[in-house]
Amino acid sequence: MHCQLSTLMGQARYSIQDVHKKTGLARSTVTQLYHDKATRIDFETIEKLCALFSCDISSLLELEGVKEK
After folding, report:
1. Which of 17, 20, 57, 62 is deepest in the core (most CB within 10 A)?
2. With contact defined as beta carbons under 8 Å apart, do 53 and 59 qualify?
3. What is the H or E stretch that residue 2 is in?
């Protein structure tokens, strides 16, 4: 699974600090997700990021190696 946060942030021209301030998420959490280094993510974090970027979970998280039927 890969996090697409850096792509979403680039499109919105947000820095890590911007996302931290706008969502209330810990800066370290945003940094780990930005660099796709996080090993877990909780539902509240997903909800806050999807709300900020007005997107659904499939725009934020991408499963690698899953074939569509």
Report:
1. 20
2. yes
3. strand 2-3
Query: Can you read off the two tokens belonging to residue 8?
Result: 């979403």
Residues in the chain: 69
Q: Which amino acid is at 26?
A: A
Q: What angle do CA 4, 8, 10 make, to 5 degrees?
A: 115
**What pLDDT is stored for residue 56 in this prediction?**
94
Do residues 60 and 49 lie in contact, with contact meaning Cβ atoms separated by under 8 Å?
Answer: yes
Classify residue 56 by its DSSP letter: -
Read off the pTM: 0.87
Element (H, E) at 61: strand 61-62
